[in-house]
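Figure 6 in text form: structure in, sequence out.
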């Protein structure tokens, strides 16, 4: 089987990292080149132009993408990212990681992802709504509750999902809550969805620490990123007894070796919009945070922050990837050689898609679960996934990343093989 241009692109960046990871997993599994090419090649890609009329009358053209990497196990599932640096290769990589993530969590989904090249901080709410609705209209033929279900990601939130749901529903002629997840509760969202990714990060961190005979009260944690994932994770970690010694956002970071006062910090961020300037800590930048004296490092911001330059400085014993793709291939090898245990993104941050699945199920059934039910089901799913990965890691002497990839890739490949090729 010949590979497409997508699979042949070996440039640096998240797509190259994703392809290299797949190659490693296929090597362990003994898959031939044809099967690997099938697993590497996105099933469907859409690249659309999004014209925007700004509030001041200016007109501009944005680019939008939706990639459905694999749908052998079920409809596509994946977030929508608004960021000025979004490009097709990044979306491809994120879609592939979603495929493995859904399989590791044993969800009946394939992997998908979307993106629009826009800096949401530079646009009004009205402009963002118009961009969202136009983007949705352009990709309408390939999305739906049985085809491809979107969710929030960087630069988007529950309002974005409500606009997508409304645009899709208006075009279909009736209300369809299941086309997106991460919606406001008032229009069919699920309890527990806002903190799901963060709670999942905490669950797998606790499981990894338990394997070493430790608990949250025994460790100091540094978190890069104080957005949707990092902020909630910090609060949950602190409530569980851990010392969160540093956090950062896009503007900078703060550090206190005795532990940050999280409620006060959250109040400071609510008042100022950033962790910068918090009086009960010393300033630290995003790169220096990675090298702080901490037991657990949680990169929960952008991909590619742990590189050949930054990985050697890491002092943490555990790296728990709250973000997608925060560790490059060379950095991964450096950290492993240093004895660092990496809980990979496709396992560590799967809590979001797990509770998205719960929201989708509830929407399809029109029956809603309690927050306690959501929390219990999330914990069970995350710990089951962690045990599957950790057991294979020990049994086959693999890193947690390699074990997770092997499980995810194998489950997707089995679906391919069982379904067969058509025609």
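Output sequence:
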């Amino acid at each position: 089987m010949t590979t497409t241009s997508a699979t042949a692109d070996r440039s640096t960046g998240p797509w190259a990292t994703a392809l290299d990871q797949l190659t490693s997993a296929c090597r362990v599994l003994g898959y031939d080149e044809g099967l690997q090419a099938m697993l590497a090649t996105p099933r469907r890609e859409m690249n659309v132009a999004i014209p925007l009329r700004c509030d001041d009358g200016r007109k501009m053209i944005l680019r939008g993408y939706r990639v459905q990497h694999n749908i052998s196990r079920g409809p596509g599932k994946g977030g929508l990212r608004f960021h000025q640096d979004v490009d097709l290769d990044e979306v491809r990589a994120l879609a592939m990681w979603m495929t493995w993530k859904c399989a590791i969590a044993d969800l009946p989904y394939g992997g998908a992802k979307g993106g629009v090249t826009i800096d949401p901080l530079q646009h009004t709410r009205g402009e963002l709504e118009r961009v969202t609705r136009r983007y949705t209209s352009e990709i309408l033929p390939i999305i739906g509750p049985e085809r491809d279900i979107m969710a929030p990601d960087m630069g988007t939130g529950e309002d974005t999902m409500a606009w997508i749901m409304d645009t899709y529903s208006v075009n279909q002629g009736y209300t369809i809550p299941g086309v997106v997840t991460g919606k406001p509760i008032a229009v069919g969202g699920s309890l527990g969805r806002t903190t799901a990714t963060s709670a999942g990060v905490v669950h797998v961190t606790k499981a990894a620490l338990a394997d070493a005979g430790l608990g949250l009260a025994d460790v100091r944690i540094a978190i890069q990123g104080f957005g949707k994932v990092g902020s909630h994770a910090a609060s949950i970690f602190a409530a569980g007894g851990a010392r969160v010694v540093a956090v950062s956002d896009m503007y900078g970071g703060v550090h206190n070796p005795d532990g940050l006062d999280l409620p006060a910090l959250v109040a400071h961020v609510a008042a100022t919009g950033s962790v910068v300037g918090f009086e009960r800590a010393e300033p630290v930048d995003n790169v220096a945070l990675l090298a702080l004296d901490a037991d657990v490092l949680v990169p929960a911001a952008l991909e590619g922050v742990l590189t050949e330059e930054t990985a050697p400085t890491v002092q943490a014993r555990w790296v728990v990837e709250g973000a997608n793709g925060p560790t490059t291939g060379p950095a991964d090898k450096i950290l492993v050689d240093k004895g660092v245990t990496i809980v990979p993104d496709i396992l560590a941050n799967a809590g979001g898609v797990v509770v998205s699945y719960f929201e989708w199920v509830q929407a399809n059934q029109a029956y809603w679960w309690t927050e306690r039910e959501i929390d219990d089901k999330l914990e069970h799913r995350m710990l089951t996934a962690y045990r599957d990965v950790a057991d294979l890691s020990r049994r086959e002497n693999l890193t947690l990343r390699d074990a997770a990839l092997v499980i995810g890739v194998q489950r997707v490949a089995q679906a391919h093989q069982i379904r067969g090729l058509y025609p």
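Caption detail: The chain has 15 helices and twelve strands.
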